Amino acid sequence: MSTDDDSPALAAAKRIGTDVEALVVESVQALRAVPDSAAEHYDAVAVQVIDGHAGTRLGGTPLLPRGAEVEIKAAREQTSNGSVNTPGRWYFRGGDTGQHASLVQDAAYYALAVYREGLNRVLLDVVLVPASLVDELLRGRWYDSGNTDGQVAKLGWPSVFGGDDW
Predict the structure, then answer these.
(1) Considering its fold, how many domains does the chain have in total?
(2) Which residue of 17, 47, 130, 153 has the smallest Cβ count within 10 Å?
């Protein structure tokens, strides 16, 4: 029997997420990937203090402490919205009792990444932001997904990076 978890669209989204996670960990050398089997709500951990000097952008915080848990979110540079292209969006789940709520409660961080799709995915930018600040940006955007994700929300990357074009 097939479930929603077996859908080709979900499998493709997971592949993209895994690819972008690897690009972010490669780009932010103070991060180390954490396997899904070891952490339910985050993808990486800071192995040293991140202060923004090595080209790493920090949003709303001067430092990321060693040991900080980081959930990596990927937004495509442009996505189709019918007949027009629009800036991509990050998808957040578990605003009530799931992933996002746990990250806020645990004082974790998001690595909000924007990538360009092509022959190879290219990381355009990434910013590390406390989950509590992302929570403020998502206020009023949550809705019931009707599935195991619980409450979900979307946030376009221009809300964080400004503009709508690279």
Answers:
(1) 1
(2) 47
Give 100's Cβ-side CA count (13 Å radius). Answer: 23
User: Where does residue 98 fall: left (phi above 0), alpha (psi -120 to 50 degrees), or beta otherwise?
Assistant: beta
Please indicate, yes or no, if residue 163 is contained in any of the structural domains. Answer: no
How high is the pLDDT of residue 2? 37
Quote the pLDDT of residue 54. 73
CB of 109 within 8 A of CB of 130? yes
DSSP for 99-127, please give it: HHHHHHHTT-EEEEEEEE-SSS-EEEEEE
Predicted local confidence at residue 114, as pLDDT: 96
Low-confidence ranges of the chain (pLDDT < 50): 1-4
d(CA 28, CA 64): 12
Distance CA 140, CA 159 (A): 14
CB 58 within 8 A of CB 36: no
